[in-house]
Amino acid sequence: MITNYAIFLLLGFFLGIVVFGIFHLSIDAGLFLGLFLFSDSLLFILSKVLPDYKSLLVIFLFFIGVTISLVLLFPYRTFKGLDERGVFYWTLFLLYTLLSLIWSSNREYGYFKLLLFLVKGYFPGIVVFIVFKIFKKFAYKSLIFWGVIYSIVLLIYGTYEYHGRISLPGQNPIWTARSLILFITILLLYQEKSRLLVIWKIVLLCCSIYLFLKTQSRGPLIAFIFTWTYYIINKLIGPKNGGLFRVKLSKTILTFMFLISLFVMTVMLPSFNQSSVFNGDNRFAVLINKNLLSEDQNFVSRKIMWKEALNKFYNSPFLGVGAGGYSFSGIDYPHNLLLEIMSELGIIGLILWGMSLYRSFKATKGDLIMRMFFLQTIFFSLFSGDLGGNYEHVIIGLAALAKRQKV
User: Which residues form a coiled coil (predicted)?
Assistant: First the structure.
């Protein structure tokens, strides 16, 4: 079995040698970023084509091979780029998380989520970083391409097996919603001059919003609203715009109206049946109804989990209880990455994570789409998932670090 998987590593290596070494072709780093951010669709397709293999491991080994070929072909560009301090901070955070397994009471789960963090977050981010440093090419059109692929796969294979909410088979709808929110964001922000392409973009936007509403995911919606509120405020009072009266208000107002309309659609409609867009009860209504919120099981359970995470932090504030050590009443993580890091990695882990975030956020200066992506993925992590599941902010953070030296 090990030999079978090694074939994919060798395939990636020799393909890299042929494409980049013999034919001297360059590649857009945006293609890699888009592939990794919307990788669930590719993983699903591979599971159909290669049913006897683990799709994630196949992709991981293939890109290890590609990366090795790039490092061998372009050693100077690769290692010169990796001297970026932000990369050092993310690496230090990863190593400290690994070290914390020594005092973790649940090392098995700690290993599992650290492996996901490495395979789906840190390593893909390093690949994007290296590719950009070598070829100096990045286009957001590539992300739109992968977003379209993801939406098509979701439309064809999407199921409602998870409480009547759309997702790819076997996937939690929250992760589907996250991918769609990123796709919606880039469609809204990416400037296209051709009228034909603008019309095509509007069609894609309507389709992705429709699919997002069918996920009934509240955390990603809140993240979307908060980050776009930041965008509007920045547009209105940002120093580069010369203040409120010199900003181009038309686009800002239209964007604001779109957000308000989306919010009204999702929380104000009274009830829905199986044939409606929502395929079930309106889960968004709790966002404006305090009584419904207090009775919502997800919200109530999260309050308990968050309180337990704080208790663990108070009991072990400096080192934390170790990666995977949160375990509480059969639950492995508190569905809030900030509280998870506080409880499991303590103040030391929190500082390392904070330094990584700050460096990456600072790197998004001058790149509005990258900044919105980064902020949204941070907000995503405050409502669901664990360290391994919230891999998007690591990929985007490392991509932002790579692009910073371009602007």
Answer: none
